Amino acid sequence: MPRLPRSTFPAYGVFQITSRGVERRAVFLDRDDRLAFLAQLWRGVDRYDLVVYVLCLMTNHYHFVVEGHRDLI
Description:
- The chain is an alpha+beta fold.
- The chain has one helix spanning 31-47, and strands at 13-20, 51-57, 61-68.
């Protein structure tokens, strides 16, 4: 059975989000890249009233754990 489209998942709960560069290449080349990524992340966190529990930026990937709230629905 195929997975459900993402739009049918609830907008609340705790989620681990991760991504890695193609062929494990660097996705953050310098401090400015990291700062730009964090700026975008915090905009989303503020906009959707998310809670960030853990955040890890590595050279070629990142991980973070966020929680959304029921009032987003």
